[in-house]
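REQUEST ID: PR-0412
SUBMITTED BY: lab tech R.K.
PRIORITY: routine
TASK: structure prediction, single protein chain
INPUT:
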Amino acid sequence: MKVLVTGAGGQLGSEVVHVFAARGYEVVGTTHESLDITDAVAVEAALQREQPDWVIHCAAWTAVDACESDAEKAFLVNASATEVIVQAASRVGARVVYISTDYVFDGSKNGPYVESDIVNPQSVYGASKLAGERAMHEEDLVVRVSWLCGFTGSNMVKTILRIAEANPELSFVSDQVGHPTFADDAARKIIELVDGNHCGIFHVTNQGAVSWYEFAQEVLRAADLDPLRVKPVTTAGLLPARPAKRPANSVLANAALTSAGVELLDDFRVPLRRLVKRLSIPL
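STATUS: complete
OUTPUT:
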């Protein structure tokens, strides 16, 4: 079996490349430098040349606030390019795994979101990712993750540790709640879904719902730092205010995994400790 991974240099894509290669798949990893996914001719040529069985589409523009001020680019990268990849994949008989987001929901639900809940994105980023979802074919896979953290690239774990190193106190919002997702765990679940020949929409997150304030405390605990250094603040109290609206409730229930008999990922504190330890070891 052969997979082509877009966004192979990113925090999820790099882990996807690793787990598929370790499982014995032939893996072709592409980055923005090697494949511009907005170039339909280049995408078609790459898929015709490689003839993959699956395309794991991790490439995206995920700068949520920047998307808000450049909707054209957000929809080009996250929606139009995704449609191009799906069509090109279909022509070579490949199926697609599309990585989506909790931002497709408006965050107003009283309780965790299941895969069948009504989508209502409140940001350009969320709307562009939803448009990407809608480009998928029936036999494809949509994997929604939330609060993604990994070893490669920038994420909140690295941000929290960096702030903690430079400041005696940290402030994080206490009124936005979600399930953190760790890239290495998510990658292992993605290959499980591919090996199981699944299709449709799946929420793939680590377990344990927390606010960003509580998550920051857990990051400090994992680094053997004092969690009481973290202070709560409301979203309304953030200065300056963020350009893009964040869902107050980003908790994704992994209902489709449960229904399919697929084991859920660990509580987020397990991979968090693993990541913090990995980040602390000089390369």
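NOTES: The chain has one domain: 2-280.
REVIEWED BY: pending
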